[in-house]
Amino acid sequence: MRDRGRDPKKFLFISGLKMETGNGGSNGEEPTSWEELYNINLIPTEVFLKFRKEIQGFRVGVNLELYNAPMNDYHAKLVLKPLAYERRWKFIYEPLHQDVQLVSKKIPITKFLNLQVGVGHSFQLHATGWKWKLTTCLGGDGVSRIRNKTSLGLCPGVDFRFGWRADYVLPEITGALGTDAPLFNMNSGRLQASLDRIEAIFTNYDAT
Length: 208
Known about the structure:
The protein is mostly beta strands.
């Protein structure tokens, strides 16, 4: 059944009250399908294999990084960093691209904001430069965003880390009486979640 005096929308009739539901847009568009409003992608765009060895207060690692979006790519890295918490740096060498980098660990500025700085040299381009980056687990463009990493220890020396992202708009319920607005209006919200990265980490601890 449809109200001829309104733009085409979906109506529900519960207990004799007319209830209008939609995607919360103010432009009068048709409601989006539930598949588009709530979508969870479990196919990762990045797969990392990390092999680590701890030797006398240092960690030496070999990272094999596979990317399938936005384009297929492959990186191999040698990583050296101290285990001491106060020595917040790591050295990275990429033999395929002939790049070396000295990068700081993420330095907390606030509860949700981190700063990372680094300097690097490219032997192919014969160039040296530095960069800095501000990162946060919250953000997004017009919506709220959570970006986080979840670690899972399978057994001693074998860990998995999952990088995931969730963009969301919380549901909202509004209503009016004695106006042209509907008595009951529900914005169903939106959730777009994805599993961005899977890391398999194999660590050989120093026996001494």
